[in-house]
Amino acid sequence: MIPIFILQTWLLGFLSFGILGGAVYLAHEWLQRSWVWDPVRQVSVFAPNFGSNQETMLFTIALLLALIALAGGTIVKVILRLTRRTKPEDGIDPRISPKPVSQQRLRRTDGSDLHVEFYGPEDGILIVLTHGWGLHGGEWNYLKREFAGDFRLIVWDEPGLGDSTRPTSRDYSIENLARSLEAVLALAGDKPAILLGHSIGGMIILTFCRLFPSALGSRVSGLVLSHTTPTNPVRTTSGSAFYTAIEKPVLMPLMYLTIALSPLVWLMNWLSYLNGSAHVMNKLSSFGGTETWEQIDFATKFQPQASPAVLARGMLGMMRYDATKTLATISVPTLVVAGDRDSTTKPEASERIRASVPGARLITLTPAKHLGLIEHHERYAQAVREFAYATQTQTKEVSAAGQTQDAKIPARIE
């Protein structure tokens, strides 16, 4: 989720309130007309007149709107079942998370408690997974299954999301999130890790590279940057010229309004999920057309689970993000993953990263949008797997070469 999605949040919220409000208004009108005067008993009695009349039409429309408002999501799911594959071809439901080997709470100086989970054997290649904004560690359910037997995964929830608590400092800048990543990486000890991030996860990793350059090559052996951007995502999304023009007069005030009215926006998000409008919007904006309905539902449920105030503060942080000068300083193997139809962070942003990071490699998922790593999880996992093994081999070769060189240098004599 990037800053422009604040517009979608409010538009879907108004639509949801409109549907529910229409149901309440029409139901009230029907109730008013269903009360009639009984001249014999000299009292008003409830006597609905069902038939081919206006009162029955009011009742029917009110009932239909109420059904859409509270159960439209179920109807949408049925339609998606009929129009999409009825079950994952590989039999894996992304909504079900495998059990971690262990988990830990990590207390941070900003007042947050980070939820961290560990998967796979301790001697496996280490990968630290950083999810997209508005999501949580459950985003990686596919990789948890596909990598648990070979890789050591560290999966964490960013501050205020998933099972991690909010920072008391209310600092959701990309820099503070990068410091949280550094604290999570410290749990690996001396073992070098590959940092893998999606969307804001990639922004956090690039900011980490700027703040902790000495970690590259020692504590960090490689980077995987998926569907991300090197600068403010408002600048690298479809329609960026328009969104840049309304960034300060519209988007930023909506962020602060969302923070102030967080409980109300939370209700709006749940209504959007229940009536199915969020499912439809997510399908159109995040998937390329080969997704399953389970994947759509999986991705859609993240937003109503997250605090709108947290989401808005994080989006404000993205507006101040820029890592373009950092790209040329990255000295470890880097894999960039893009979606050919990604309108959230356009493929051009990934190409810019590839062109600027020395030796970086780019793969493009197709057909894919911003959640291509979920829609094409098998192809994504294979690409990451090959990159991880190649990085491990390269690291061993560099280490062996360094040891050989050291052996040729005589010890210093005082």
Characterise the protein shown here.
The protein is of the alpha/beta class and about 425 residues long. The protein folds into 2 domains: about 1-35 and about 50-85 and about 250-290, no CATH class; about 105-230 and about 320-400, Alpha/Beta hydrolase fold, catalytic domain (Rossmann fold, 3-Layer(aba) Sandwich), CATH 3.40.50. It is about 50% helix and about 15% strand. It contains 15 helices and 10 strands. It has helices spanning about 5-35, 55-85, 140-145, 175-185, 200-210, 240-245, 245-260, 260-275, 275-285, 295-300, 300-305, 310-320, 345-355, 370-375, 375-410, and strands at about 35-40, 45, 100-105, 115-120, 125-130, 150-155, 195-200, 220-225, 335-340, 360-365. Strands 3-4-6-5-7-8-9-10 form an 8-stranded mixed β-sheet, sandwiched between helices. Strand 7 (about 195-200), helix 5 and strand 8 form a beta-alpha-beta unit. Helix 1 (about 5-35) packs antiparallel against helix 2 (about 55-85), helix 3 packs across helix 15 (about 375-410) and helix 7 (about 245-260) runs antiparallel to helix 12 (about 310-320). It is elongated and about 100 Å long. The relative contact order is 0.14.
